[in-house]
Every structure is written in structure tokens, then in C-alpha cells.
Amino acid sequence: MPGGDATPVEPAPLHPSLAPLVWMVGTWVGEGLGSYPTIEPFAYTEQVTVSHVGKPFLAYAQRTWSVDDGRPLHAETGYWRCASDGAVELVVAHPTGHVELALGTASGTSVAMASATVAGTPTAKEVTEVHRRLAVEGDRLRYELDMAAVGRPLGPHLRGELVRAAGERRP
Amino acid sequence: MPGGDATPVEPAPLHPSLAPLVWMVGTWVGEGLGSYPTIEPFAYTEQVTVSHVGKPFLAYAQRTWSVDDGRPLHAETGYWRCASDGAVELVVAHPTGHVELALGTASGTSVAMASATVAGTPTAKEVTEVHRRLAVEGDRLRYELDMAAVGRPLGPHLRGELVRAAGERRP
Asked: Is-above-0.90 flag for pTM?
């Protein structure tokens, strides 16, 4: 399978359109805190991977585990794209039965996104809005995610701080 | 990272709600043909992985490569969920800037899905509807994907036939 897991190939150069997000490429590990008015606060460990194949998108995958017992918690997966003038597009699927389409802007080594579409399956909880902010300083990535869900207004949900995985170089 | 790539853990049992889709779990490789009234037909190789972590969703990832020169073509990533009575939910993110939320029904070792929501970013092409049919017989997975896009009505877009990757057992 060309380019598949079993056949390493020469890494493709980053697509030029992705320059505003190059600082995000890599594997990131760390911890986060979740909260919302309707739930008990919780702590999690997290791994985020942002990768590319030379085409004009970054592949994004995230997983979290409970700090308490290592059981899997959330995951999400999708793609980042860049339009012109620092405009950024994000599409994400969530195992909770949601899709999220967000638009925003990159500035330096940070990006701020606001959902334009959030849709849920019949068994999914009501989520109406998601805002994300990510910023990298050196080898440290910090993010904040705010959410409007289950009838509550937009408010803090997740805060995380990750570091570039050992052995990785900045792109 | 518990459960992460670096730390293999004992595989969790499949969540009971996923019984209607157990036949889909695995790694699948094969070939497909793409067509649409607005493009030249094209052939691709493909890898599909459907996996789980014991929670009530299946993680889904797909990649395709050109048969001609092995260059990456499409990819998509998301999650399958089961509701009651064979009802199935699918959420997918596409690197083309689309999110797709589809509802359908599992029957035996097949599933038929129709999009309930398709949304695209400002730089994405117009896609308004996606229908998917997947069926497994033995170690062979066949699928068809129809699409309504760029002003055309719902019609054939992708047809693929994959086999369970070598060394994999049926779940």
C-alpha cells in the first residue's frame, strides 16, 4: 500500500498553503482539565498528532485517557486547511456523534477557531457551538476549548498543555 | 500514554451496542474506481481501518493512493455508532473541507447510509448528499458511494472491493 503504514516512503515537503500552520505539525503529549456546569471536573492525559502527506491539508487526531485509571475518554479526528490571508478551516468528527466545521485565523504560532456548523446524530448530546484557541511557544502547545451544549451558553470546557513528543524536531 | 501507540494494552472487549457492525472491524486493503460526470474516471488502491477501544463507537479511517504512481489521493476519518434496532450513525471529516453526518441501517453484514448533514468550508467544493452501502461476505468488503455535488444529482462516484489484510482474523 503506497504511503501506508507498512511502506515508509520519503516524506513529502509540506504543501506551501500550510505555512501558517507549520508550527502545529508533530506529535504532542501532555495533560488537560475538563469542566462544564453539568459535570464533575476531570483530568486527562492526551496525545495529539498533526501530520501531512504533501497535500493541502493537515491530518489531525487526538485521544485522551483518564488520569485515574488510564481508561480511554475522548477522541477526535479531522483535518486543518488554510485559505488565503491566514484564514484557517477545520473539520472534525467526534465519537460522541458530532461533526464540527470551524473557521478562524492563524496569527504567528497561534490559531483561533469558531464553529460554523455543529451537527449531532439522534443519540448525541446537544452541542451548538465550539470555540478553540491553540498556541505554541517553543516546544509547548497550549489550548483552550469553549463549548455551548445541553442548553448552556458558550463557556470553558477543556484546557490542555502539551509538549512535543521526545525525539521530535520542530518542522 | 495509556492505550497510546507506544503502550500496547490488553484489547478491550467490543462494546455490546456495536454487535450490528462487528463484521466491519479490521484492516481492509484493495482497489476502487472513481467516476463522476465532471471528472475523468480514476483507479485507486485503498486501505480502510475500523477499530475500537471498548467504548460505544468504531473508529474509521480510510486512505487511497493513485494506481498510476502511488501518490496520495483521498482520505477520510470518523466514527460509526449504533443506536437501537439496527439504526447506525456515521460521522466523517474529509480533507476536502467537508463534514458528513449520515444515518442508516445495518442488516446482516451490510449497512446502508444516507447523509443527513453535509457541510463544507468556504474553499470546499459543493457537496450536498452522500449515500454509502457497505457489505462484507467472508473476508471481502464491497462498497458503493453515491454523491450529489457541484450541481449534479445523486449518482455513482466510488466503487471498491477490499479484502481483510493478511494475518487478520475475523472478529
From this structure: yes
